[in-house]
UniProtKB/TrEMBL annotation:
<dbReference type="InterPro" id="IPR023753">
    <property type="entry name" value="FAD/NAD-binding_dom"/>
</dbReference>
<comment type="similarity">
    <text>Belongs to the NADH dehydrogenase family.</text>
</comment>
<dbReference type="InterPro" id="IPR045024">
    <property type="entry name" value="NDH-2"/>
</dbReference>
<keyword id="KW-0520">NAD</keyword>
<keyword id="KW-0274">FAD</keyword>
<keyword id="KW-0560">Oxidoreductase</keyword>
<feature type="domain" description="FAD/NAD(P)-binding">
    <location>
        <begin position="5"/>
        <end position="330"/>
    </location>
</feature>
<dbReference type="InterPro" id="IPR036188">
    <property type="entry name" value="FAD/NAD-bd_sf"/>
</dbReference>
<protein>
    <submittedName>
        <fullName>Oxidoreductase</fullName>
    </submittedName>
</protein>
<dbReference type="Pfam" id="PF07992">
    <property type="entry name" value="Pyr_redox_2"/>
</dbReference>
<keyword id="KW-0285">Flavoprotein</keyword>
Length: 453
């Protein structure tokens, strides 16, 4: 009898934790496990701003999937671009561009999220995100190159546009990105004697009336004060009306010279969700507390792409798309697949939120562990301690800790890697959001397989 085929889509926190639990709980002959991911590493997303600022090396936050002692999962290098739940086939585009039709008995959908964009003129052509390792490395090169080019220029207008940086999004990603990158430009300017430090201007804007409202009014104001004290101009109730190659227009009418626009204004579930033609909640797959997709046999979903009921908060609440929940949903879903294989009852996912941490670089941070409000060095200790403990391997922990210590002792460096292409990449180039099929295309594709078979 053929072994049941378990296909996991996505190597984020949710997908990797699910795979690791399956490897521990299932006997080698009990099921066949496959993982679809374009890269054979798990990205520790919360530390990307520190990669962009050069505090951490890219390798530090990219944890190899092949270091597990029990590793026996087949890794398919590519991305899922469509799922047909009736035919039980997942359409995969490999990194070579070839299409693979992968049958499954159980599928775990953990494709994560992509940067949420809006129909703003010039946005996708001129903005950069902070969602992938490539984007973080690209932004670091780009920011340092603006300092180099401004230093070499005698045109004051060009200098003004190159030394103004705009970050859109007052959530964790945007706030940490602005804070970490502002520190590197402030420290770097000492190495550019031809530049006036007062010319470097950082703007953080958000359409919301408050900065990081999840932290509460008190800590939100504390974070705002830290940013303003550093010279970052924070504008709330404002967004981008238009983006150009050397200027941005705000919705309040301001037009600013700018060649660096970083867009972190929220995330949306992976477009893969739309290929299933299933019920959604604000774009995320609606699932049961047991993480199953109603009406679809053998289909499970979790993480950023799933609207998981938050039983700890009560009826009508859904778990926020955070690493904290994804890391815990993965093992629960794996246990439910094992239970399904062994004809045992499935258990619901329940987890009480442990709090939030925001690392603003240096000794600056605001944290709210278990509802306790902290700021300054104590908050920084909690923030970095949490991130360090969440890293999955001892190798990753050693690398991150070494990087932090080296940065604290030796300070920043301002070297461009040279990987930046002459042609600036767009959001779509980094996140491949235009690669997915429609539900109709998926059904037509799987139907053609049946005809050929």
């Amino acid at each position: 009898m053929a072994r049941p085929r378990i296909l996991v889509v996505g190597a984020g926190f949710a997908g990797v934790e699910c795979v690791r639990r399956l490897e521990r709980r299932l006997q080698p002959g009990e099921a066949e496990i496959s993982l679809v991911t374009p890269f054979s590493y798990q990205l520790y997303l919360p530390l990307l701003p520190q990669v962009a600022s050069g505090v951490l090396t890219p390798q530090s936050v990219a944890v190899s999937l092949r270091r597990s002692a029990k590793h026996r999962t087949r890794i398919i290098p590519g991305g899922a671009i469509g799922v047909d739940p009736k035919a039980k086939i997942c359409v995969i585009r490999k990194i070579t561009g070839e299409t693979l039709d992968q049958p499954y008995d159980y599928i775990v959908l953990a494709p994560g999220s992509v940067t949420r964009t809006f129909d703003i003129p010039g946005l996708v052509e001129h903005a950069r995100g902070m969602k992938t390792l490539a984007e973080a490395a690209y932004i670091r090169d780009h920011v340092i190159s603006q300092l180099d080019l401004a230093d070499a220029s005698d045109d004051e207008d060009e200098r003004a546009s190159r030394l103004r940086f705009v970050v859109v999004g007052g959530g964790y990603a945007g706030t940490e990105t602005a804070a970490c990158l502002q520190r590197i430009t402030t420290n770097a300017i000492k190495r550019y004697p031809r530049l006036d430090p007062r010319q470097i201007k950082w703007h953080l804007i958000d359409i919301a009336p408050k900065l990081m409202p999840e932290l509460g009014d008190k800590l939100g104001r504390a974070a705002l004060q830290i940013l303003q004290k550093r010279g970052i101009e924070v504008s709330l109730g404002v967004s981008i009306a238009e983006a150009g190659p050397d200027k941005v227009t705000f919705t309040d009418g301001r037009v600013l010279p700018c060649r660096t626009l970083i867009w972190t204004a929220g995330v949306a579930a992976s477009p893969l969700v739309g290929t299933l033609d299933a019920e959604t909640e604000r774009g995320r797959l609606l699932v049961t507390p047991e993480l199953t997709v109603p009406g679809m046999d053998g289909v499970f979903a979790l993480g950023d792409a799933a609207a998981v009921p938050d039983l700890a908060k009560g009826e009508g609440a859904f778990c926020p798309p955070t690493a904290q929940h994804a890391m815990r949903q993965g093992p629960r879903l794996a246990d439910n697949i094992v239970a399904s294989l062994r004809n045992q009852p499935l258990a619901p996912y329940i987890h009480k939120d442990l709090g939030l941490v925001v690392d603003l670089g240096g000794r600056d941070a605001v944290s709210k562990p278990l509802g306790i409000e902290l700021r300054g060095l104590p908050a920084q200790v909690v923030a970095r301690g949490y991130h360090w403990s969440a890293l999955r391997t001892n190798v990753a922990k050693t690398r991150v800790l070494t990087n932090w210590m080296l940065n604290a002792v030796a300070g920043d460096d301002f070297v461009r890697t040279g990987f930046q292409a002459q042609k600036a990449a767009t959001l779509k180039d980094f996140e491949y959001t235009d690669a997915y099929l429609t539900p109709e295309q998926v059904r037509a594709h799987t139907a053609s397989l049946t005809v050929r078979g």
